[in-house]
Amino acid sequence: MAKIKGANAVLDVMYKWGIDHLYGFPGGSFDSTMNAIYEMQDKVKFIEVRNEEAASLAASAEYKLTGKLGVCMGSAGPGAIHLMNGLYDAKYDKTPMVALVANVPTPRQDINFFQAFDEMPWFRDVAVWVHQAKTKEALPVLMDTAIRQAYAKKGPAVLVIPKDFGWQEIEDNYRVSASNHVADNYAAPTAESIEAATKLIKEAKNPVVYFGLGASAAAEELKEFADKFKMPMMSSYLGKGIVEDSFKPYLGTIGRIGAKAPNEVQGHTDLVVWVGNNSPFSVLWSPKNAKVIQIDVDPEKQGKRHSVDVSILADAKKSLRALIDAGEAREESPLYKAALADREEWDAWIASFADDHLKDEDRVRQEPIWDVINKEAADNAVFAIDVGNVNMDHVRLLNMNGKQRWTTSGLYATMGYGSPAAIAAATAMPDREVWHLAGDGGFAMMSEELLTLARYNMHVLTVVFTNETLGYIEAEQRDESNQPLSGVIIPDNDWAKVAEGMNMKAFTVHDKAEFQAAVEEWKKMDGPAFIDVKYTKHMAYSTELNTLDDPEFVKYYHAEALHPFSYFAEKFGLEIDAASGASGHSEDKADALQVQSTTSASSPETAPDASSGASY
């Protein structure tokens, strides 16, 4: 019978599952696997990143973008530990992936050898499945199991491979179960749950839809549902892009990074149709006495974030279709009318800044840059979004069309995610345009991966928004805890020079026209490019404060054209408790605004202590 080396057998199993590449960094303990990669280079492509963290984040991002499991690898000791951030990202975002982790040869384990430690306990918390091969013959069987476990349990699986087993030969007779893998087929809702939910929808005065990533296969049903029952639509951040942003009843994302309208509307509903959403922040939203219809395939999620009146343990697409077919069409509620008017005013306000230049700062506002991105990005572009204020700009300002794809580090929210995600997008979807969008804080954490983009000539445009601060943290310190700025200032770096030093065409821009020209230059190229955008240091509109009845707030955010939600409520006859309205003013919010008004992103971190201790 034919023989095959253990490491080659592992890669062969991967290949038979339809996985033709993996991300990693070589190490002495992985020499046997690196040799297998060399011998199988006609089947398996090795994407060599500059840090194993990038490898694991890329593997996680690949599934989020394609629905196909990604594979990464790390050598014994430090290489294994560097994988942790990507593995936790996959765990938190329920993302199947496999990590191959090397160990020293079996005779040198447990004797305090170089780079050797007991790796299994390290991965037990993060992995849905973790195992170290005890025999060379087990390697292909365990690799097949790791892939099945990752898909079944929707998380990272870890296979630890002793170096000597990778070199040793085994019989080439193992069975791969890839042909038995089928797509998820979730249950249909029960008649009883649909009847109960339909009754609540009929009785509600001001219902809304609140959906998340679990509704990703139900875009058309979501839109038909919202249109028939006249419900404003809101989503978690990860729900952005499921419904195109141009669909008027879709207000956007609730929460700090979201727009004004959804944050105001969610506080005045009496029924929430909660679809495939597990946002941890949703415990803070929606009235406590609002009724909830929750649709989710996971029983653990039912009632986790809010008390639930009707639980539908079923597929989102099937459940929404059943509700559409069973329910009676509704007229537009006062909340529906107010919501759409609120959104329309917000959209017009955003558009009014599309050509706004800050000549006194020699910097540019957010809106002009994203206006160019909206116009220049391909209809099927992929966006790799880092973590920080870029999430706020992305969710508010990028108008996605339903064909475009995007990814970020969601529940785990690790900075530096953008570069590895862009590598994954360019590797797995080479025929699509890739935009890597990051703040200077997040980009600095993984800036070395420009080398990877350049080495493989990936057609990725890296755009770094430089405002010389950890903007998201700065806003937290100001808006939430009302404290002096501490630890958020970033030096003014010449990022374009850094990119050029990493073999990449680079531009520094200060206005919309310069950005437009740089984007057009990249589109003519077949490889990567880099743009350092000198961004305004002015913070984006705060939906946490949202005190439009305060002249100082209006002045700071140039919000003269915006109305508080009470204006729309009165206009359309929506009864609200003015004392608890989303635009209500308070002394604590005034204190927070005063901190904003008297300190800027470039102010010394010893700004006056105006903290009131408030948190909202």
From TrEMBL:
Entries under PROSITE patterns matching the protein: TPP_ENZYMES
Q: Which EC number applies?
A: 1.2.3.3
User: Which segments constitute the Thiamine pyrophosphate enzyme central domain?
Assistant: 194-323
Record's PANTHER family? PYRUVATE DEHYDROGENASE [UBIQUINONE]
Limits of the Thiamine pyrophosphate enzyme N-terminal TPP-binding domain: 5-120
**Keywords for the protein's UniProt record, in alphabetical order:** Oxidoreductase, Pyruvate, Thiamine pyrophosphate
InterPro entries the record matches: DHS-like_NAD/FAD-binding_dom, POXB-like, Pyruvate_oxidase, THDP-binding, Thiamin_PyroP_enz_cen_dom, Thiamin_PyroP_enz_TPP-bd_dom, TPP-bd_CS, TPP_enzyme_TPP-bd
Gene behind this protein: pox1
The answer on whether this UniProt entry bears the keyword GTP-binding reads no
Name any one Pfam family assigned in the record: TPP_enzyme_N
Family membership noted in the UniProt record: Belongs to the TPP enzyme family.
Chain intervals for the UniProt region annotation (Disordered): 580-616
Q: Which residue numbers delimit the Thiamine pyrophosphate enzyme TPP-binding domain?
A: 386-533
Q: What is this protein called?
A: Pyruvate oxidase
> Annotated Gene Ontology MF terms?
magnesium ion binding; pyruvate oxidase activity; thiamine pyrophosphate binding
Q: Where is the composition biased (Low complexity)?
A: 597-616
Looking up Gene3D superfamilies in the UniProt record yields: 3.40.50.970, TPP-binding domain
